[in-house]
Amino acid sequence: MRAVEDALGITIPQNAQIIRNLIEGSQYVQDHVIHFYHLHALDWVDITGALKADPAGTAKLAQSISDWPNSSEAHFKGVQNRVKTFVESGQLGLFANAYWGHPAYKLPPEANLMAVAHYLEALDWQRDVIRVHAILGAKNPHPQTYLVGGMALPIDPNSQNALNADKLALMKQLLAKARVFVEKVYIPDLLAVAPFYKDWAGVGGGVGNFLAYGEFPLTPNNTERLFLPRGVILNKDLTKVLPMDHQKVSEYVTRSWYDYAGGDGKALHPWDGETAPHYTGPKPPYDSMVGDGAKYSWLKAPRYDGNAMEVGPLARMLVAYGSGVKPVVDTVNLVLKTLGVGPEALFSTLGRTAARGVETLVLAQQIESWVDALAANIKRGDLKTHNGDKWDPSKWPSEAKGFGFFEAPRGALGHWVRIKDGAIANYQCVVPSTWNGSPRDASNKRGAWEEALVGTPVTDPERPIEILRTVHSFDPCMACAVHVVDTHGREVTRIKVV
Amino acid sequence: MPKVAIDPITRIEGHLRLEVQVDGGKVTDAWSSSTMFRGMELVLKGRDPRDAWLFTQRI
Known about the structure:
The complex is a heterodimer. Helix content of chain A is 40%, strand content 11%. By secondary structure, chain A is of the alpha+beta class. Chain A has a domain at 13-203 and 316-389: Cytochrome-c3 Hydrogenase, chain B (Orthogonal Bundle). In chain A, strand 4 (215-217) and strand 5 form a beta hairpin. In chain A, helix 2 (14-40) packs antiparallel against helix 6, helix 6 runs antiparallel to helix 8 and helix 10 (326-339) crosses helix 11 (349-364). Chain B is an alpha+beta fold. Classes of the chains: A alpha+beta, B alpha+beta.
């Protein structure tokens, strides 16, 4: 969207900008909470341990960290019984595949039960958060109201079929509910669990280079004023946030299953990017696909000025912290102080997981004010959501190129487009998991999570839970980085020790 | 010196294979491999730029 708008020189109306910020901001809050409880927590929380908990102890613990109402002994007893029935049925469903009882689990049973209770509550809660998408985007996922030039969403205070005062009021309610859960459940849980895993503040640091395109423009198409700033940090140096220049982004295919016409040793800027797939890996079944210098991934290897970069909440929070963005600085400092660690602890698996919590809190406390800003515009009589001046291709130059930036919840996402005679001549997407999950490049430099895994302890190679902790801390989305066509249903993870 | 391959990694979105070298109870080297091709760039070639977002949104 932004790539095409950039190429054609389109500025969107302020209302459209605010609506996009609201869709994206509420997406962050929902996505991060889901990631924490449903994709990451079970690396730290042993569900089988929850069965051994004393519900009275869990109630005491929960009440000591938050005044969230669902924290009575009876409530936790009820949750424990539900889990017990589930386990005794022998059909573990989504809990089937895990390393229960692994010695790397450190939480007391009572904390395990609290986390399991909140795992279930978060599932209910998120249904309401995504209703913001139903109001502004017509559906979730894949909102339908985006349009080059703004939003295909009419504002009309006098119509029930348009964005009106009722819908703004409902959104405020939903976003307040989202915020309260983050303040009273997610953040207290994060701060209660983290002290048991402080050794993970020294594991999983990775490349130490961070890239953020920035997000939430506060003025139409103006990248100068972003709520979360744009910038680059190299070698963990928080005192120097460098300006981001997209011309310094390039992709290698030296170790990826693609061919470049000019040879695989040189990186290409995405405007000149090529996508010529050429699989040269082993035929399945295979034990290893990593040979000496062999290609081993469908991901290209993106680099910034030649550096492997980490993207995501940690990158965004570090860039904001280094740039002195007040709510981020205050929240990061509060978390560091509570855990009794210094800023160096941020460069770790635990730091990555904590940064996601910080970002969720900062945004959850901000987005309600964006509804107010939209309401104020409407009150002034500004109902515009679309700029159609350059909708007609007859108004386009014969050739144009654009860069579209976006901070997806899991990290910096860039689109580069070349338009020729009204049609797309080249389009390249460099998504967050391509940065984080990047293979090696021409100089054999590892990608972000390859580097982060080096040094990660593995107590039992047959049950490598520690590897999952570090990889999950990045919130990988291989469905984003690759296109998934799975006709075989669920596979069970194969662990092979060769 | 065991080499561990995890394929696929679960509780993520999509398919990911990891191969790691373990030595003395620690990972000493790692390879991250995406095992499926996306090809969105090829899908978009020649299309109306105003439609691009609807396709890329599905990534």
